[in-house]
């Protein structure tokens, strides 16, 4: 009394149903990042869905520019970069890497962006460490 399609038919039906809910559409996202007027030469930018509904997307920042593909929606943006400074490294090096992007632009980010279908989705971040905060 089995189905006329049997196990292969069931597999096909399940794979079609699962395929209907596959990955969301993604859109090209580009932009630039500078800190106090100077392009970040080498760093990372991460876009985290504000509702945590989709996986984060990340890109290298090279010579102040980045490019990646992201699903639509509101994002929190985190930017990180480090540079060599004198110090005793773990491998005996005479330098260590030190982060130079303030917390309000990474782990305590105040930055955001909204990726939208049909939009340019270009986000330039001009980070200013000298800006006055508070009232």
Descriptive account of the structure:
The relative contact order is 0.21. This protein starts with 5 loop residues before the first helix and ends in an 8-residue tail after the last strand. A hairpin with a 2-residue loop joins β1 and β2. Strands 3, 4, 6, 7 and 8 form a five-stranded antiparallel β-sheet that branches. The chain is built from one helix and nine strands, in the order αβββββββββ. It has 135 residues and is mainly β.
Strand content: 35-45%
C-alpha-based Rg, rounded:
22 Å
Which sheet architecture does the biggest sheet show?
5 strands, antiparallel
Total beta-strand segments: 9
* Beginning-to-end CA distance, first to last residue: 76 Å
Averaging pLDDT over every residue, what do you get? 85
**Which parts are unreliable, with pLDDT below 50 for 5 consecutive residues or more?**
1-19
> Which H/E pattern describes the elements?
HEEEEEEEEE
**What is the structural class?**
mainly beta
Annotation field: number of helices: 1
| Molecular shape | elongated
Instruction: Tell me the helix content.
Output: 10-25%
């Amino acid at each position: 009394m089995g189905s006329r399609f049997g196990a292969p038919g069931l597999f096909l039906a399940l794979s079609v149903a699962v395929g209907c809910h596959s990955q969301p559409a993604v859109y090209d996202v580009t932009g630039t990042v500078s800190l106090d007027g100077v392009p970040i030469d080498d760093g990372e930018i991460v876009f985290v869905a504000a509702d945590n509904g989709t996986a984060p997307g990340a890109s290298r920042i090279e010579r102040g520019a980045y490019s990646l593909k992201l699903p639509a929606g509101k994002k929190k943006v985190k930017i990180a970069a480090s540079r060599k400074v004198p110090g005793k490294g773990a491998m005996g090096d005479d330098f260590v890497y030190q982060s130079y992007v303030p917390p309000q632009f990474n782990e305590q980010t105040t930055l955001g962006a909204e990726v939208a279908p049909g939009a340019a989705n270009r986000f330039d971040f001009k980070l200013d460490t000298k800006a006055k905060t508070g009232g």
